[in-house]
TrEMBL record:
InterPro entries: aa-tRNA-synth_II/BPL/LPL, Phenylalanyl-tRNA_Synthase. This is Phenylalanyl-tRNA synthetase alpha chain. One of its GO terms (molecular function) is tRNA binding. Gene3D superfamilies: Bira Bifunctional Protein, Domain 2 (3.30.930.10). The keyword ATP-binding applies. One of its GO terms (biological process) is translation. It is an enzyme of class 6 (ligase). The keyword Transcription does not apply.
Amino acid sequence: MNELRQTIQNELDERQQMLVKEKLNKQLAEETIDVSLPGRHIEIGSKHPLTRTIEEIEDLFLGLGYEIVNGYEVEQDHYNFEMLNLPKSHPARDMPR
């Protein structure tokens, strides 16, 4: 009787393992991932609020017909006076430094 029970138990265990393997194989076949697909682009970070505000103001002035110019706000002494050959004693050079 014990031998028969042991034989049946072994058969049931083997069948159960086979069913688990079949279920796993079926699940793996259904859940294949195509690794050749391109990934999704994830936006990282955002613009600083001050930068966004400056851009909004620039857009406003561009819409009004103004032009955005980047450069020095104050020119150097060399370009304002030296290259124009103004002498050191010229009254235009009496600007506070």
